[in-house]
Amino acid sequence: MGATTSPSAVERSAIRKVSIRLVPFVALMFFINYLDRTAVSFAEPNGMGHDLALTAAQFGFASGVFFIGYIILEVPSNMALHRFGARRWLARIMVTWGIVSLLFTWVQNSEQLYALRFLLGVAEAGFFPGAILFLSQWVPTRHRTKVLALFYLAQPLTTVIGAPFAGWLIGHHGLFGLEGWRVMFLFVSIPAIVIGVIAWFYLIDRPADAKWLTPAEKDWLTTELAAENSTKTGNKESHGREALKEAFRSGRVWVLAMVYFGFIYGLYALAFFLPTIIAGFQDSFGTSFSVMDKALITAIPYLPAAVVLFFWSRHATRNGTRTWHVAGPAVVGGISIPIALYMGSPAATIAVITVTACSIFAALPVFWSIPSRFLTGAAAAAGIALINTMGNIAGFAAGYVTGWLKDFSGSYTLSMFVVGGFMLLSALLMVILSRRRPADPSNPADQPLLEVH
Q1: What region holds the Major facilitator superfamily (MFS) profile domain (predicted)?
Q2: Are 69 and 119 a contacting pair, CB within 8 Å?
Q3: Helix, strand, or coil here: 43?
Q4: What angle is formed at CA 121 by the lines to CA 353 and CA 418, rounded to 5 degrees?
């Protein structure tokens, strides 16, 4: 997709209002979502691992089993969101996962930890693809990368802000008679319940119902989105089983799902094990860190990642999305992550990991602008959920395989080579997809998704 012409005043004002009214709130929901699902990574090296007698493989399984529950219900959840509306469904998801997350405060053994992580995945199922679908239904394709980038900023910023916050909470050992890591679980769970209730009243399902848009802005958004949708599905929107068949039969959807698998494998390998790797610096390099020191070091790679995400996505929006906007970061991340473990100091290791984090986060919002270019309605709900399901499989695999390989080999070196391999595979698949020739050149829905440059 090439660069676009200058937008009209109505277009600019409509996109600006959506960016101000909706995107920050949905990003806040995502911030809380990512903090709750990764809180276990802060708890493990700061008391939970010792108190529950967890091995690396057991912690890896506990990290990853979350995604099994998510996988089982993800596609049905997104289809329900399409049927009942994002306002009701996203609010329901938040309140449910907040309640489950709260129960981690009183977990007593590894079996209870496994059960609660599984239930957390069941409760959260559909949130992320539902949020992507919701935002995609508010802005035309040419603005989607920008909007998704603003939304995606919440993920790296969760660690930038959440890691020190988690460290601060863990430091309150003894509050209410609880260990520090239990105090953390208690206080990171409550916001999900509160914001979930607010979301029920704040979110709006479609532009036509937004009182904060002028009639001209409503008409422009509705007309633009309807015109785009008609070209994607040949003026016929599929429903129910037909929508599922359309998504599951699409070769593009499956290739994009595998591309996403590689990125998410890398993302969660870092998210779940970076705090543990940092704790290991004390043995590897003879250093000593407090709980807050480790939290701040964990946050370091994610602040530059947020900056790179913003400017990379802005470049894609202004100049048109190219293959290298996704494939390039995959190559850089795939090469850098195993190199990190060969550095001779904590500072050098974190510097290289920062490059990996920047690579992953640069590509993700650009990637998510692609599926909605050829899917709409219920088919988009099913397709986006299917792609994210592969990401959840990667999340499970990253947690379990990384921990198992660490126990097997005695270090994280082999695990990080596996991460790098999956990211390089994502780059290769992205290039192959971009070179696919349209089967029907006259069909707009069958045109190449990206320009090859």
Answers
A1: 22-438
A2: yes
A3: helix
A4: 35
Q: How far apart are CA 181 and CA 40, in angstroms?
A: 9
In this structure, whether the domain defined by 9-208+239-446 belongs to CATH 1.20.1250.20 is answered with yes
Kindly state the percentage of the chain with pLDDT values over 90: 40
Task: Output the CA torsion sign for 444, 446, 449, 453.
Answer: negative
Residue 225: both structure tokens together: 């989105």
CA angle 112, 114, 115 (to 5 degrees): 65
Long-range CB pairs of 408-414 (<8 Å, 24+ gap) are: 411/341, 412/273, 412/277, 412/341, 413/338, 413/341
Backbone angles phi, psi at 110, to 5 degrees: -65, -35
Mean pLDDT for the stretch of residues 265-279: 81
Q: Give the single-character DSSP code of 225.
A: H
Mean pLDDT of 217-230: 87
Task: Give the residue among 34, 157, 50, 181 at the shortest CA–CA distance from 105.
Answer: 181
Structure tokens at 382: 């099913």
Dist. CA 101–CA 120, nearest whole Å? 7
Task: Indicate the residue type of 346.
Answer: P
DSSP 258-301: HHHHHHHHHHHHHHHHHHHHHHTHHHHS-----HHHHHHHHHTT
Q: What's the confidence (pLDDT) of residue 239? A: 54
Q: How many CB atoms are located within 10 Å of the residue 318 CB?
A: 11
Instruction: Specify which residues 322 forms β-bridges with.
Output: 451
Burial of 437 (0-12, 13-18, 19+ CB in 10 A): exposed
Smallest Cα–Cα separation from 270: which of 338, 185, 332? 338
**Phi, psi at residue 322, to the nearest 5°?**
-115, 165
Q: Please, are residues 65 and 54 in contact by the beta-carbon 8 Å criterion? A: no
Tokens in use for 428?
Answer: 């290769």
Lowest mean pLDDT among 131-135, 156-160, 165-169, 440-444: 440-444
| 107-158 residue pLDDT tens | 999 999 999 999 999 999 889 888 988 888 898 888 888 888 889 889 888 8
Task: Please choose, from the candidates 256, 243, 357, the residue with its C-alpha nearest in 3D space to the C-alpha of residue 299.
Answer: 357
Q: Kindly list the domain boundaries of the chain, sorted by start residue.
A: 9-208+239-446
